[in-house]
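As a warm-up, study this chain.
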Amino acid sequence: MKNKMKYMLASAGAFVLFGMTSCNKLLDKMPQTQVVTQTGKSASVTANDAENLIAGVYDAETGYAYGLESNVLDKITNGDVRADNCYAGGDNPDNISIDLFTDNALNGNIARDWRDSYGIIGVINSAIQQISGSTDPALTSARKNQMLGEASFMRAYTYFYLVRLYGRVPIMLKPVDQTNSESLISSTLVPQSSTDTVYHAILNDLWYARQNVQNDNVPSTKEIITKGAVNSVLAKVYAAMPTPNWDSVAYYCDQVIPNYSLVPDYTWLWDNNHKNNSEAIWEFNYIGYSKVGNWIPSQFIGAGWKKFETPTNDLVNAFQAAGDNIRFNASIAFVNYGWADPYWKDVNHYPIVVKYNDPNSGTNDFYALRLADILLLRAEAYNQAGDLANAANLVNQVRARVQLPPVSPNSKDAMEAAILNERRLELAFEGKRWFDLVRTGNAVSVMNAQKDGNGNNLNYNVQPYMLVYPIPQTQLDLNPLLTQNQGY
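Now compare it with the structure written out below.
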């Protein structure tokens, strides 16, 4: 499928993305949150058109319709630079302000993530409407439902990302209504919903997807959505909701775990020779620049200009304190590129991210979901239920792979800290850390305790309102029904 995705976004109807670029100023008068399909409501797409539409949805979600900046690079920025895993690196002021908690509604990255996320949702909404309405007998009901399940999953996944970044966001589940100018405006200017309402919409999409997508390990590529991916996100949603439901976290993790296995060597995850492996649940596949390449590694590795996402002193110390040499060496390398900054002053010993290690050919995949993440989440659910023994067993499975000794914390708080640290070391630079800190209630205290390499406090002065981003000013200007998040 992937080799077709670059060309199929609009084959069943031309899409106009409001405000995707600054080239057309007229379009900037409308909110950047919807997609208009120019296909009439009465039109019935063919089975081939439907295949093109779902391919376009995958293309949007994995990065090639909206750019890898927001789909992969910003996931690492938002998950690791916002947290204690990375400094911003480079010289991009938007990245730096995210790192220093000085961001505001004018931040370009924050605006891009909102814009592109709603652009993806617009593509999904249009695809769902057109595939649902297809009457082509060549499109079997089973295949139609599978497509709709995959699209619904990706819409839920995108909203899950949005609600954790911005809190209250508008819910849009249908394409823009172009019947007349009034319907166009009313269907585009949508107010924010409460976080509870957004989570309810996410769950509805995931429950539908769970009934209709393929079983685990059926597709030939882990990029195709399966029940494993749906159950994984359900578990993560129930853990991240304002009031977590740990029984549901446990249930959905248990639906995933038996169908996957850790690869025996941690480095296999990153060597480009073990793609779509037994641990991968949802994997964005990149073949290389000749077809579909991942250019994100070039943003982390290579001399010539100071790269992004510099590992922190705190993360390096955490790896070293754990004696975690395998994951450390798979994740971070020290180089002599002639760079130095206030965090790392030795030009001969400057850290870079090397988990994504093929900047020249672009073959690195991105794991949106993998088993180790779910094992450690299940350990949290065991711990929340007071079952420290089973929690430790799962943590120690992950540790054993990287030749670390078992842990046996003797209290719930100690086990929670051990799991959070294990997640940090296992999942560094995969865009997970900030969301883990937020949902466990540790973000403010951890970030305000950050120190530089000499033990001096970095003085982030993180306040509780900073746990979500500001609503971008461009969106406030375009949509008068939006209100700014408190504190910004």
